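Residues determine shape. Take a concrete instance:
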Amino acid sequence: MKSFHLTVSVLAFAAAMPAAARDQIQVTGSSTVLPYATIVAEAFGENFDFPTPVVEGGGSGAGRKKLCEGVGENTVDIANSSSRISQSDIDLCAANGVAEVMEVRFGYDGIVFASAVDGPEFALTPADVYNAVAETVLKDGALVANPNGTWSAVNAALPDQNILVLVPGTKHGTREVFDTKVIIAGCKETGAHDLFVAAAEGADDKEKAANADKACMELRTDGKSIDIDGDYTETLARLDADKNAVGVFGLSFYQNNTDKLKVATMSGIVPSTESISSGEYPVSRPLYFYVKKAHIGVIPGLKEYIEFFVSDDMAGPDGPLAEYGLVSDPELAATQEMVASETPMAPLQ
C-alpha cells in the first residue's frame, strides 16, 4: 500500500510539474527552527553540488499548512515546526493529495523567560506566570478576574515591577508549549483548574478537563499580556522599548543575546542545554521538520539535505547546531535510520 501511495503521488507531481522542475529546495515554517535550518542550508550549499535551499519563516502552523497545499513545483518541500503536526494538518494534506509525510525530530529547545539584562532577577514558577497573565485566577477560594498589577502582588518574593509579559502569538509553535507546560501547569498548581473542572460542561470527565484547560488558557486583555505575532527579534525590540517587560524566547535565541537579556529560573532550574538534556528544566520541547515524501527523488538534493540535516556532523552534540543552542536528540541515530529508509510518519496516537 505504501508503494501505491508513493506511485500515485509521484504521478500527481509529474502532472503538476512543467518540463523543467525547479532545482532549489523550498523550506518554510517555524521561526524557532529558522536559524538552525539556515545554518544547515548554507553549509549544504557550500558542500554539495546543489543550490542552497531557500529557507523562510512564518510560523509553525502556517508552514505546515503550506506543506499540505498539494504536490508539485509550486508547493514547498519542507515545513519546519516547533510543535508537532496536528490531525487537522494531516487531514488537510490528505485532502490535497499529500499522501505521505515524513516527521523528522532533530533535537530539543527550551522555552525561557527573560527580561532586560540590567533589570532585577526573576525566579518564576508556572503558578507565578499563570497568576500574572491569566484572565481568571483563584483568590480566597473563588475564581475572579485577575487583579494583579505587579509581580510582587503575584508573589512577594518577586520584583515590585509592573506586569508586562510578551507572549508568543497563537500561530507560533512556542505558544503550544507555553500554554501546556506553563499556563495549564500553573493553573493546576494554583488550584484554579479544579474549580474550572467543577464548573465545566461536558459529557464526561475527559471533556470537562479539556474545557477546563481552555478556560485556563484564556489570557488577560488589559495590556498586561501581549501576543507577539512576529519572531523573537520583535519580542526583543518590544522589551528594549519597555524595560518592565518579560519576554518568552527560545533558549538558543536567549543564548545568542545574553548581552541584552537576563534569563529567569523556572521552578528553581536555570535553563541550559545541560538542564534540558537531563530533563531537569520543565519547559522544553522537541523540534521537527516535516517532509513531503512525494518530492524526494524529484526535487534535486532533497534527500541529501534531509540526511545532512540530521547527520552527526550537523545535529550531533558537537555539531554547529549544538553550538547555536540546540540540545541534541539522544535518539538521533534512530532518526537517521528513518530518514535513510524514507519512512513516512505513522498515524497520530
About this structure: The chain has two domains: 2-108+286-340, 110-284. The radius of gyration is 22 Å. Confidence is low (pLDDT under 50) at residues 1-20.
